[in-house]
Amino acid sequence: MSTRPKCPQFTEGIISFFHSGETLHTYYKVFGKLEGRIREPLVVLHGGPGLVHGYLFPFVDIAIEYEIPVILYDQFGKEPTFWIIDLFLDELVNLLAHLSIEDSFDLVGHSWGGILAAEFAVRRQPAGLHHLVISNSVASSSLREQSNVQLLEDFPEEVKIGITEGMKHPAAYFRAVKEFHSVHGCLTRPVPEEYWYALDQIFGPEGDLTVASAPYVQISAHSIVKNHWPSNASHSMLKRRSIIDRLDLIQVPTLLVNGRNDFVQDFTIQPYFDRIPNVKWVIFEKSSHTPFIEERSRYMKLVADFLTAQ
User: Fold this and answer.
1) Catalytically annotated residues
2) pLDDT per residue over 164-221, tens digit each?
3) Is the pTM of this model over 0.70?
4) Where are the beta strands (DSSP E) in the chain?
5) pLDDT for 222-232, tens place per residue?
6) Of these four, 107, 191, 245, 287, which has the most CB atoms within 10 Å of its CB?
7) What domains are there in the chain, each with its CATH number?
């Protein structure tokens, strides 16, 4: 199957969200029809935060080939002080309610989106959630840092320096991030433009430097910064974050996915497998951080089969 996106029909819209006296907005797309559906809709949570949904284009295959409605949306990008996990969870709740699917739905989260999906299952215990897919996502910040340190050892000095110094030197940082992601982010050649576009929204020349300088992004799996804590790091969503001791609270069937060359290495996912009661884990041997691009057909079939299993 081609790695290029198909062009199915979709509906789109903008949802208002009220927070601390402000009106925020969530942009979304629905592939397939929610009315008269025979399967639970699948909501897909993108990475970042600060990325956009476009790089998740292969998920439209599930709507086309398996008749499962698929919902993609762009999460908030706000000032760092707004960036707390519960804000993102409230946004997700607002989306589900707006689309009237809160009583029956499935979730897949990629990278940061996997963290968000797991926290949603643990903190909110949503009665309507039937299946959870945690894709290429770590169980704790310390495991992520350990993985990044290991993998950076194999890169040239300029890449190590560029990543470690972070947004002090944005151009060098972005070059280093792209070098790292060429090995551990996406192995498809050419790398789909949607993938680089998503990273450009944070780290590119026209990227949102407010978002990029936020504490979370400085230590995210996408930015791969090692031991770089800004002065306002106390607001970071991921500083010393771990969900490991709460994973037994995830009661729905859960699928774990990562790639053999992923910067989310096996040991960063192992706690999910050890502690979630009903869990399955699949490693994609020819992939890195984006097996839904690198091994698109197999990934989509795996997810669809998991969602429709009796």
Assistant:
1) 111, 262, 289
2) 887 788 888 889 989 999 999 999 999 999 998 888 877 766 666 554 444 333 333 3
3) yes
4) 10-19, 22-31, 42-45, 70-74, 105-110, 129-135, 254-259, 279-284
5) 333 333 323 23
6) 107
7) 10-139+244-308 (3.40.50.1820), 143-235 (no CATH)
